[in-house]
């Protein structure tokens, strides 16, 4: 017999500013590193960008109405730093502050809990130019000032705050794979910038806890649990290496304030260890700087095998939308990605694995003893708009239904799950894959020739999710 979903369970959906808002030069907004990066030829799929995105900036009321129609209890969105501080610092821009005031008020009027991400990758370009963004400790006071501005302005209405979205992803893509801004390939710089990211996260959480704001705060982590390719002990070891290298390296720092010894040793041998001062150590170990919940972005598991010292290195991910075109990838001496014949894949070669979500929840629960807010989960797919404006996305319903079941089982296993904000509510821009990789419950038409451009059409999954919410997960 499964334990029921708690009555207060936050059924919702998620988005991020750059991927939905558009209006990239309106309301006094400054330019972010993404506004610049998408203009470098060859960086994104067919050069797509978020200049217009799905025009949520102008259509947010229509989107919130649709959320209310679906019965959403929560909506996770991010604030664009460049709307609040066009140059990253200085005087706040009232038009930007007001946009999110209006959005938050509209959500609350519809009884939808706002879950606010402070940073979802759109760093002000001015700070990148001035001091190298994440590579300078100067970002710590600037980020804190930005976060404080949000807490003071919205803290009376917002009860869930996400500090950094997927620090592991934006650091590794930005400084190791060169597939996100600032498009650098340098592991030493990556670990140094990442350490500053940890200091920012801890500083903001500590400030929040010390200043009596109501509510809860934590990071969102992209956790893909590692499985061994088979029962060979050498592959079990590889899976343990992968777990420490890909996941515990970040989550241990958030919750315990230290990096795993195994990875510190590996970094020292490679000459990659970030400098940790005594003051850093004190801050990171201070319980006030630790999160109230772990935000979990779950898409897939990784299956890994042993990788010799002269083995394969990091490779970019499949952005082609053609199944089976991923390249070999790994960390020499620790692990490499292996095939898992038990799992189906999406068109972008992401493993489909609902049981992996249950495992992720259990591992976070047993290692960190924190409640979990599932801040992302969903299926990126090609969808077809029928002539009658229906979208029959039974594959997405199947995907989400299996993941909801896995959450239900994890709750019965004893995991405290606060809520589930699927990726995504409307279709939106996939950073590197353009608009054809769709995740939403609501289809957004991008037929620029017709007057229906950017029109919204609920998909079959929209009506399915509505039922799930109405029955509190009993569908
Ligand atoms: C996460 C990001 C989201 C979103 C999602 C889907 O890493 O936090 O912003 O984009 O992944 O990824 P993609 O768009 O690459 O399919």
Class per helix and strand makeup: alpha/beta
> How far apart are the first and last residues' alpha carbons, in Å?
16 Å
- Would you tell me the overall average pLDDT? 96
Low-confidence stretches: none
Shape: globular
Number of strands: 16
By DSSP (H or I, 4+ residues per run), the number of helices equals 15
Give me the side-by-side strand order of the main sheet. 1-2-3-4-5-7-13-14
Residue share in β-strands: 5-15%
Largest sheet entry: 8 strands, parallel, barrel
- The value of Rg in angstroms is 21 Å
Distinct ligand kinds? 6-O-phosphono-beta-D-galactopyranose
Helical content, roughly? 25-40%
EC number: 3.2.1.-
InterPro entries: GH, GH_1_N_CS, Glyco_hydro_1, Glyco_hydro_1_AS
Family: Belongs to the glycosyl hydrolase 1 family.
Pfam families: Glyco_hydro_1
Give structural notes.
Keywords: Glycosidase, Hydrolase. The protein is an alpha/beta fold and 475 residues long. It has 15 helices and 16 strands. The chain has helices spanning 17-20, 33-37, 56-70, 81-84, 94-109, 125-131, 139-154, 167-175, 187-210, 233-256, 261-270, 278-285, 354-368, 394-413, 460-470; strands spanning 10-14, 74-78, 113-119, 160-165, 216-222, 226-228, 294-297, 302-305, 330-331, 335-337, 344-345, 351-352, 372-376, 417-423, 442-444, 456-458. The strands form 4 sheets. Strands 1-2-3-4-5-7-13-14 form an 8-stranded parallel β-barrel, surrounded by 6 helices. A hairpin with a 5-residue loop joins strand 11 and strand 12. The radius of gyration is 21 Å and the shape is globular. The model has no long low-confidence stretch (mean pLDDT 96). It binds 6-O-phosphono-beta-D-galactopyranose. 6-O-phosphono-beta-D-galactopyranose (BGP) binds next to loops.
């Amino acid at each position: 017999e499964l334990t029921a979903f708690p009555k207060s369970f936050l059924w919702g959906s998620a988005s991020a500013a750059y991927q939905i808002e558009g209006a990239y030069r309106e309301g006094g907004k400054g330019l972010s590193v993404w506004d610049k990066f998408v203009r470098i030829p060859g960086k994104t799929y067919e050069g797509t960008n978020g200049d217009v995105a799905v025009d949520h900036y102008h259509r947010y009321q229509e989107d919130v109405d649709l959320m209310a129609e679906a019965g959403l209890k929560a909506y996770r969105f991010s604030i664009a730093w460049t709307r609040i501080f066009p140059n990253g610092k200085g005087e706040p821009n009232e038009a930007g502050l007001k946009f999110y005031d209006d959005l938050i008020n509209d959500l609350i009027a519809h009884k939808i809990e706002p879950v606010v991400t402070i940073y979802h990758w759109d760093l002000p370009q001015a700070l990148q130019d001035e001091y190298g963004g994440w590579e300078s400790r100067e970002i710590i006071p600037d980020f804190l000032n930005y976060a404080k501005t949000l807490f003071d302005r919205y803290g009376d209405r917002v009860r869930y705050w996400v500090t950094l979205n997927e620090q592991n992803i934006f650091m590794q893509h930005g400084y190791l794979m060169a597939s996100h801004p600032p498009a650098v390939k340098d592991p030493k710089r990556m670990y140094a910038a990442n350490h500053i990211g940890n200091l920012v996260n801890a500083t903001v959480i500590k400030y929040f806890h010390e200043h009596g704001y109501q509510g809860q705060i934590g990071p969102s982590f992209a956790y893909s649990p590692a499985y061994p390719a088979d029962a060979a002990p050498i592959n079990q070891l590889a899976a343990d290496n992968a777990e420490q290298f890909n996941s515990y390296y970040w989550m241990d720092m958030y919750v315990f304030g230290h990096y795993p010894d195994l990875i510190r040793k590996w970094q020292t041998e490679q000459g990659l260890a970030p400098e940790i001062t005594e003051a850093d150590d004190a801050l990171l170990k201070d319980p006030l700087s630790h999160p109230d919940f772990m935000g979990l972005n779950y898409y897939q598991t990784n299956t890994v095998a042993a990788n010799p010292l002269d083995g394969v290195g990091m490779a970019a991910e499949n952005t082609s939308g053609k199944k089976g075109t991923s390249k070999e990838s790994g960390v020499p001496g620790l692990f490499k990605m292996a095939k898992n014949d038990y799992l189906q894949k999406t068109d972008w070669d992401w493993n489909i694995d609902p049981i992996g979500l249950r495992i992720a929840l259990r591992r976070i629960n047993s290692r960190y003893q924190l409640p979990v807010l599932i801040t992302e989960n969903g299926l990126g797919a090609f969808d077809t708009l029928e002539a009658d404006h229906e979208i029959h996305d039974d594959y997405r319903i199947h995907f989400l239904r299996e993941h909801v079941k896995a959450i239900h089982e994890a709750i019965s296993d004893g995991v405290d799950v606060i809520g589930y904000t699927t990726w995504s509510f409307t279709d939106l821009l996939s950073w590197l894959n353009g608009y054809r990789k769709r995740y939403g419950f609501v289809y957004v038409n991008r037929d620029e020739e017709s007057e229906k451009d950017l029109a919204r059409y609920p998909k079959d999954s929209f009506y399915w999710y509505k039922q799930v919410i109405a029955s509190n997960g009993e569908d």
